[in-house]
Amino acid sequence: MGTTRRAFLKTSLTAGSLVSCGLTVPTFLGRTAAAAPNAGKPGAKDTILVVVQLTGGNDGLNTVVPFKDPEYAKLRTTLRLPAAQLKKVNDEIGLHPSMGGLAELLQDGCLSVVQGVGYPNPDQSHFRSMDIWQAASLDKELTEGWLGKALKKLPASPSFHLAGNNETSPLAFAGAPVRVPTIASLADFQLRTAAASREDKKQQQAIIEGAATPSKKPGAGLLDFVQRTAVQTYASSQRLQEIGKNYQPKANYPNTALANHLKVAAQLIDADIGARLFYVSIDGFDTHANQLLAHANLWTEVSEAITAFFKDVSARGHKDRVLMMTFSEFGRRAKENGSAGTDHGSAAPMLLVGGKVKAGVVGKHPSLTQLDMGNLKHHTDFRQVYAAVLDRWLGVPSKEVLGKAFTPVEVFKS
Amino acid sequence: MAETIDPHWAWDPYRPSSESPWDLKKVGHLYRRATFGATWEEQEAALQAGPAKAVDRLLGGWPGQEKVDELTESLARAIAKANNDQQLAAWWLYRMLYSRHPLREKMTLFWHNHFATSNAKVRNAGYMLGQYRLLHRNALGNFRTMVREMTFDPAMMVWLDTSLSRKGMPNENYARELMELFSLGIGHYTEKDIREAARAFTGWDLHNGKARFREAQHDTGVKTVLGQTGNWKAEDIVRICLEQKAAPVFIVGKLYRFLVSEAVPATPELLAPLAEKFRASDYDIQALVSTVLRSNLFFAPQAYRTRIKSPVDYAVGTVRGLDGKIGTTALASALESLGQNLFHPPSVKGWDGGPAWLNGQTLLFRQNLALSLTSTTDDRFGRRADAAALARSHGQKDDAGLVDFFLRLFLQGDCRPKVGPAWYTIRNSPAPRPSRFTGPPRTLPTTASGRCVTWC
Question: Do B443 and A223 touch (CB under 8 A)?
Fold first, then answer.
């Protein structure tokens, strides 16, 4: 165990209110050294998952392109990506020209492309479909997320949502025993005071925390929610100010929002506090019109950010501990519309990046002729991918999270 | 909620009684929901006026709005001319702070969140201001008129691609969101309805900043939408949507969450009388808002403090409460970090609101903003929301009086018995640091506002 972690864990809770009211606090605050995770192989206790959400419905057909299929050119008259520019995966499939970094990861054996992912009776509302993916359920009412449920089985696993200003806490984390904090940057994640001295500052923080302390009995409702969020946030923020100070990136991160969020993730991994789950997202994939340039820019940002992050954590020796997974709420209509864009569709590929993934393409590209209302048909349920991640990566029984057994997709090296 | 609420009692007018008197708490509640918060003088005036008159005044506004409009219109023209995206939110915040008709301004915000359009894609400040005017004009008007105008609003036409939708290859974006988010809600239409409706919206583009119909680009074929078949045009789709039973229920449910409660579930039974009234009035928004703001349920304990303030409510309410005169450019950028960048909602669904406003980071930003606003050293806001001066001008001389004043101003006295005293005990603690007491008392108002203003 690194000295950072030991020092971090040793810090006792100063906010007496936390202890006195028996509140659940972020696990990395209360955890004892004995509960620190073991190092080990995939499926062991210290694997890390980084979920990258592509918001808006990514056009899978122009992400992983079946360039050999003559139907592709027919469906995409203005949006067709020339075969010569694609990053070839094999004789039939190529990655979008902007995915240079990801193509290199494929060369290095660290990228897996899972084809044709979706779910039965696909919903084409952004919001409903996103909820389905985040909750991993098709139930009418969705209140818990798949990662929130997973965290119930992963005690002492600090998790973070790294996000910009317009982003709220994802449903994916709902239901977690401790609310997963959203963090813009470590520097911003602190309670400021107008204090003349250290002691004064402490006292002022104590007042503010005191005002937020809920009653001892956990209650329901919004007031309880606000108070718990406040107490947990104040406690986390104090600790987070103490960590990650010595972090220096070991890769060139582009100056983009996504890269900045992933850099904070790298910083938190480097801080050695046993963090397991990270969640980031990038919006803009709802390309109904003039898609070509917008989509290219988006994939440049995604590819560069993922590549920089993976290089950074690899250089720190975490290559085999880290798994990144992309998803979007749906793919897009096979045939482009009249505005040089694409409307909402269904099946699309997912990408997995990591030292332990089975590199290459998993599954066939969905047929471009056998469509469902003009949309690509899925052959792999996204919950089969989640099942693989839960069972074989995080070590959480997938059935308990997904409600029933799904056959895991073979995405890891055996 | 274990208890069930009688829907008829709920929407009948509230009459003060000995069990439920008209008091400062109800005044604060009314102003938090119907406006962006009240000054101490406004609270006292409403307390004197009684509930009926207080609501009348909110619905009608105060004299002097023309002056505010005149000033902001000239600013709007300059912003449009320069296509100045940066100043849009600041411009609106100025109106919120100084409006003489705050209820209309608040309802404009409601509709902005309903027809959520972002300049991130529109990239035309003039179009965004045009949409603001549309929303403001109809904010307490007729919902049917608003949807019809919205369909041909330039900002909306860019936002949801109506301006690019052509015969033969229609763009489905507007048709989908009109049904899913603007009128019916999910589950009340099919994918087929969307595709058919999209055909009716073809043929419109933007010419010199205005919607223009081009017959040749319009799909004149027969369409079947929500069970009605005909050679439908755009206006017909709006009419058909608003003829659905789901439409008034959907709108009323959203308004309920905005004005009444995020915690008490809006059951179909509870909403039914309200939705029926809204439908019968042919979508008269002012009548609906009036019914809600005068109702038993609105002033009942079930609705009291059952919403989480939006960042705009939080910040504008704090500044107004403190009689502050602050620069709205700085305020706009602060609001962005709190998660509410006006004219830039995160998606066409708008801001989720409720618990989603508080995610750890935004909670810290809220507390830190309260500190900056009341700071006498931080220049960002021009040091003009001086809490200490305000308290002095209301005759508060000692710490106990000061704490009491802020608790009444922001919380109408709602505070756990231990918390208030803690705030001034610490100031009076015998710690040998006299320097702390020489400056204006920043911590107290900051703490007070930080604590109170999270709640609505």
Answer: no
pLDDT tens digits for range B359-368? 889 989 998 8
Neighbours of A414 (CB within 10 A): 6
pLDDT at A220: 62
Q: Which among B376, B358, B365, B248 is positioned nearest to B310, based on CA atoms? A: B358
Q: Can you name the residues that pair with B169 across neighbouring β-strands?
A: B166
| Between A178 and B53, the higher pLDDT residue | B53
| Choice between A144 and A219, residue whose per-residue pLDDT is larger | A144
Choose among B51, B21, B58, B54: nearest CA to B36.
B58
* Position B23 in a domain: no
CB contact under 8 A, B161 and A339: yes
The span from the CA of B357 to the CA of B338, in Å, is 8
CB contact under 8 A, A289 and B170: no
- Decide if B433 is inside a domain: yes
**Pairing mode, if any, of strands A159-162 and A277-283?**
parallel
Name the residue facing A165 among B165, B341, B435 (closest C-beta): B341
Going from N- to C-terminal start, the domains of chain A cover 37-189+241-402
A228 interface with B at CB cutoff 8 Å: no
Compute the CA torsion angle B253, B266, B306, B60 (nearest 10 deg). 40
Task: Please identify among residues 102-161 of chain A the ones whose CB lies closer than 8 Å to any CB of chain B.
Answer: 124-128, 161
How far is residue A106's CA from residue B49's CA, in Å, rounded to a whole number? 72
pLDDT digits (tens, 9 = 90+) for A370-395: 999 999 999 999 999 999 999 999 99
b vs e for B355-382, b when ≥16 Cβ sit within 10 Å of the residue's Cβ? bebbbbbbbbbbbbbbbbbbbeebebbe
**Cβ partners under 8 Å of residue B28, min gap 6:** B38, B43, B411, B412
Give the orientation angle of helix B443-452 with respect to helix B361-373, to 10 degrees.
Answer: 140
Residues of chain A found within 8 Å of residue B348, distances taken between Cβ atoms: 126
Q: What was the ipTM of the complex prediction? A: 0.84
Token pair recorded at residue B270: 């509870």
Domain count within chain B: 1
pLDDT tens by residue, A343-363: 999 999 999 999 999 999 999
Between B356, B433, B442, which is nearest A168 by CB?
Answer: B356
**pLDDT tens per residue across span A242-285:** 777 788 999 999 999 999 999 999 999 988 888 899 999 999 99
> Residue A21 pLDDT > 80, yes or no?
no
Range of the domain at B319: 311-452
Q: How far apart are CA B165 and CA B221, in angstroms?
A: 15
**Does the beta carbon of A203 lie under 8 angstroms from any beta carbon of chain B?**
yes
**Assigned fold of A37-189+241-402:** Alkaline Phosphatase, subunit A (3.40.720)
